[in-house]
Write a structure and sequence with these properties.
It is a single chain. This protein has a domain of 105 residues: Orthogonal Bundle (T-fold), CATH 1.10.3980.10. It has an eight-stranded antiparallel β-sheet. Helix 1 packs antiparallel against helix 6, helix 3 runs parallel beside helix 7 and helix 6 packs across helix 7. The chain is α+β, with helices and mostly antiparallel strands and 338 residues long.
């Protein structure tokens, strides 16, 4: 048995109030990066040119995909992955900066977030191909791990170039790119003086200002293991980004054991602990997305401890004999209780 549903552990809570005093809201939506995007603008300036804004947003999303998509053979990332050279390779400034920022998160999380883990994800049957319920052998895991590790990568963004130590090193920016795209769209809206908005791509959120009722946006964190979207905790935030990561919807069963799609780069194996999901609040969606992944990999003890040490606003949902229990860092409590 295999569950392959997409993960969306953040739910935007909207009001059903029909009060005529509610502010006007405009919605934009579409598909990008193998998922969907939704943008809501609340009371944008009267001079906002919506006909010009739509193509600007689509153009930016297309640009990010042309850099970071693993599904496009001509993307900058795909070209880098196919290049077997271990010499410096010229890149665009934005691609280099994405790589550099990803490596920074890998460093601060001691490799729990690692953009080179893709081959291990594929080995366990969670990639775009090779879906299987069979377990890889220890020898196969060891062989793949030899080319996995963010330390295999070097960046020189002053000169817009990167290189890899092993020709077989494969980079997957899916844990960073969606959040990066959210941040890029937010920048477009900011430049047009739009002060109240929500940008969401595949569950990664960026929020500014207030909703149509003049209040901070309300976000619900899903209850893990529910087949339908059931609220576990609601928070109100603004002028921040929110992202979540969970292991409860993408897995397979083998001989009665559950194997998650979330692979620990250090062991080469799926995580196997009580931590079910992590939600992170940060200034940028890219950082929140990557950090949520890292903290989930680290587990119910090391994850909260590192988040507290780093001052990360994080919320943890853990399995227990009495059901789901939660835990949060002091920074998370501060931001959500304002």
């Amino acid at each position: 048995m295999r569950a392959r549903c997409s993960l969306l552990v953040l739910i935007l809570l909207t009001t059903t109030c029909s009060d005529s005093r509610s502010l006007p809201a405009y919605d934009l939506s579409g598909n990008t990066m193998g998922t969907s995007f939704h943008i809501t603008l609340v009371a944008p300036p009267s001079d906002t040119d919506m006909d010009a804004l739509r193509p600007a947003i689509h153009s930016k999303l297309e640009y990010v995909e042309n850099i970071a998509s693993t599904y496009r053979d001509t993307s900058e990332l795909s070209l880098f992955n196919r290049n077997v050279s271990t010499d410096w390779i010229a890149t665009s400034p934005e691609f280099c900066q994405m790589m550099d920022a990803s490596i920074a998160v890998s460093t601060m999380t001691k490799g729990a977030f690692d953009m080179t883990v893709g081959p291990l994800v594929n080995l366990w049957g969670f990639g775009p191909t090779n879906m299987t319920n069979e377990l890889p052998t220890d020898e196969e895991i060891l062989q793949i791990r030899s080319s996995v590790g963010y330390q295999q990568l070097a960046v020189d963004c002053d000169n817009s170039r990167i290189r890899k130590a092993s020709a077989n090193t494969f980079v997957d920016l899916s844990g960073w790119a969606k959040g990066h795209a959210v941040d890029e769209i937010a920048a477009i809206l900011d430049a047009r003086n739009i002060e109240n908005y929500i940008v969401e791509i595949g569950g990664e959120l960026r929020l500014r200002g207030h909703n149509a009722e003049g209040e901070r946006f309300s976000i619900a964190i899903e209850k893990p293991f529910e087949k339908s979207k059931v609220q576990f905790k609601a928070i109100r935030v603004t002028n921040l980004a929110v992202a979540s990561s969970g292991d409860y919807r993408n897995f397979f069963l083998h001989d009665g054991h559950r194997y998650s799609h979330m692979i620990n780069p250090g062991t080469g194996r799926p995580i196997d602990h009580a931590l079910a999901s992590v939600t992170v609040i940060s200034d940028t969606a890219a950082f929140a997305d990557a950090m949520a992944t890292a903290l989930l990999v680290l587990g119910p003890e090391d994850g909260p401890a590192l988040a507290e040490d780093l001052g990360v606003a994080a919320y943890f949902a853990l399995n227990s004999e009495r059901g789901i229990k939660d835990q949060s860092t002091s920074e998370f409590d501060r931001l959500t209780q304002q």
